[in-house]
Amino acid sequence: MPECWDGEHDIETPYGLLHVVIQGSPKGNRPAILTYHDVGLNYKLCFNTFFNYKDMQEITKHFVVCHVDALGQQAGASQFPQGYQYPSMDQLAAMLPSVVQHFGFKYVIGIGVGAGAYVLAKFALIFPDLVEGLVLMNIDPNGKGWIDWAAAKLSGLISTLLDTVLSHLFSQEELMNNTELVQSYRQQISSVVNQFNLQLFLNMYNSRRDLDINRPGTVPNAKTLRCPVMLVVGDNAPAEEGVVECNSKLDPTNTTFLKMADSGGLPQVTQPGKLTEAFKYFLQGMGYMPSASMTRLVHSCTASLTSTSLVDGTHPRACTHSESTEAMGQINHTMEISC
Q1: Most buried residue, 83, 105, 301, 318, by most Cβ within 10 Å?
Q2: What are the residues whose beta carbons fall under 8 Å from the beta carbon of 211, sequence distance 6 or more?
Q3: What pLDDT does 328 receive?
Q4: Phi, psi of 243, deg, nearest 5
């Protein structure tokens, strides 16, 4: 990989050209941070606030960042022709190895939101050797049943695409109050993202299957995510129930569950400071950034540790408790945090 790939790229994949934006340059053998946005958004609308937050610079200076726009969702994307078959969620996940190989990344730490979290989880299940860790916000591991599907169809007949997307992204309280944030996203989604392409992406997300994961020991030959995972959801967010269920299906020895107060449906936008601090903990638990300053979460959060075990292998594989940053990487925990 060249010394610097800063800027926009269109990467050939088995299912079409994927728009990717690289920020920074590779840092030795460290993984890349790879992001994947939610339905209705693109990488800018989903992640700009988070990655532009001042404390995130302490992280991004140590990693190259790779932002992926879902097929046809980037600003200025050409509209797909009538009858175009949008890739399935499995196929969207199968596009990512082309990105990893193109830039010569050995492995990635993924940050996904909503539909993007589902895609990254699929990616990690299919290509576990390419993923060192995952931050999954607002993930729903379940496919829609027939009742959900029928309700979505009915909703589509009586609600506009924009209203459907906003109800997916924001809490009911945020929508009822029609906050400035909601108004801003309403305007940007309608003007920046191609609406025809967005409908195709939304339809495919609503047609997703169950992730088919189970906590080890609960069923024979249980399959789950092998890498460290941090689950994040805002209080009263539409995705809260799904994230809680996802937590119940993951390995408790390498899973962190972060529930954020006063953050609504987009915690990376409304609470970037707390999320940055939690992400630092997560990275430190994997053996990165051992000298990073960890203060905000220590004073503002409470941690409930539900299991511990010794780490083996070359990379520590989970987060630890908020009371001692020095213990990072020495023990594995499931950590439930309320902020």
Answers
A1: 318
A2: 118, 121, 122, 125, 141, 142, 246, 249
A3: 36
A4: -65, -40
What is residue 137's DSSP assignment? E
Contact between 233 and 267 under an 8 Å Cβ cutoff? The reply is yes
Order across the sheet with 255-260: list the strands: 7-13, 16-23, 65-68, 32-36, 108-113, 131-137, 229-234, 255-260, 331-338, 302-310
Q: Which residues contact 244 (CB under 8 A, 6 or more apart)?
A: 233, 257
Place of tokens 């409930």: 304
The full DSSP string for 36-83 is E--TT--HHHHHHHHHHSGGGHHHHTTS-EEEEPPTT-STTPPPPPTT
What is the arithmetic mean of pLDDT over 205-226? 90
Least confident of 142-146, 158-162, 183-187: 142-146
The whole-angstrom separation of Cα 109 and Cα 280 is 13
Classified as helix, coil or strand, 299 is helix
Residues 229, 218: Cα–Cα separation, whole Å: 19
Is the Cα torsion angle 108, 197, 144, 221 positive or negative in sign? negative
As beta bridge partners, residue 256 has 230, 335
The upper half-sphere exposure of residue 290, i.e. CA atoms within 13 Å in the direction of its Cβ, equals 8
Model pLDDT, residue 247? 96
- Better pLDDT: 231 or 304: 231
Write the DSSP string, 184-201.
Answer: HHHHHHHHHS-HHHHHHH
The token pair at 146 is: 């027939």
Question: What is the radius of gyration, based on Cα positions, of the chain?
Answer: 19
Q: Which residues contact 62 (CB under 8 A, 6 or more apart)?
A: 27, 30, 288, 289
Read off the DSSP letter of residue 31. P
